[in-house]
Design goal:
267 residues; 7 helices; 2,3-Dihydroxybiphenyl 1,2-Dioxygenase, domain 1; 21% helix; alpha/beta; 2 domains; globular
Length: 267
């Protein structure tokens, strides 16, 4: 599975995109300008890191929303929705997936406009959808960036007041860890850790209240690396964001982040 070696981004479904964007800014995170998905009625804001990112995805046109992503936003509600795996060549990744016995759709070209400094460019992707993988509550696909220079067009998008530098861990709640692992495209990506655990185990790590408001299963928490834990906690206090400060981490409940708990820890 060499063509697929990393996590590209995590998708968080939200009901009100701008409300969610405001909440995540109060966490001390920088968001990209709103992007619109042509013909789908959905939009996003992204929290960029050097090797991955978090995508806040919401419906911006309820009458025009269509497609699998919009349907998931409507039916599942807020919280962790999907994992996008990174590959440099979508066609090669598709062939590798099929060789491994995974039902992969033909690569699909997508684009969205990017307006910066009075100029419009098109951010282009080539994705491979994997609709038959049955990881609880979690869609998976492979994402190839055809215009990577536009995905992170501004260096300041990766400069976060809270000092966040990347996704350290994705926590996925499942009932059967062994079965779930067979449905995971890349159990050991090069740039993060994917943890499959029972919901009770994750609650034991983060606290029962941390997962209130998160989906019952699927992606329920993210761990973000930060430069200085005290500075991150100070940003949360300034934003009046509920959180729990521990000796080696800070926990932000899912109720404050539109459906996904955050675990902040130093690198």
């Amino acid at each position: 599975m060499a063509p697929i070696d990393r996590l590209d981004h995590v998708i968080i479904a939200v009901r009100d995109l701008e409300a969610a964007a405001g909440a995540w800014r109060k966490l001390g995170l920088t968001l990209t300008p709103r992007g619109l998905h042509a013909g789908k009625g959905t939009g996003n804001h992204c929290i960029m890191f050097p090797d991955s990112y978090v995508e806040l995805l919401g419906i911006v046109d309820a009458t025009g929303a269509q497609g699998r992503l919009a349907e998931r936003v409507r039916t599942r509600g807020e919280g962790g929705m999907g994992l996008a795996w990174g590959a440099d060549d979508a066609d090669r990744a598709c062939a590798a997936l099929r060789a491994a016995g995974i039902d992969a759709e033909d690569p699909n070209d997508l684009s969205r406009p990017l307006d910066l400094d009075g100029r419009q460019d098109m951010v282009r992707f080539r994705n491979v959808m994997l609709p038959k993988l049955d990881l609880p509550g979690t869609m998976q696909f492979v994402c190839t960036h055809l215009t990577p220079e536009l995905t992170r067009a501004r260096r300041e998008w990766m400069l976060h007041p809270a000092g966040a530098t990347g996704i350290a861990e994705v926590m996925i709640a499942v009932d059967d860890e062994t079965a779930a692992r067979t449905q995971l495209v890349q159990p050991r990506p090069s740039n993060t850790t994917i943890t499959l655990s029972s919901r009770s185990t994750i609650e034991g790590r983060l606290g029962t209240k941390a997962l209130t408001g998160a989906p019952r299963d699927g992606i329920v928490a993210l761990s973000l690396r930060v430069n200085e834990l005290d500075a991150a906690a100070a940003m949360l206090s300034m934003g009046r964001i509920p959180h729990e400060e521990r000796r080696d981490c800070v926990i932000v409940p899912a109720t404050a982040t539109h459906g996904i708990a955050l675990h902040l820890a130093e690198e």
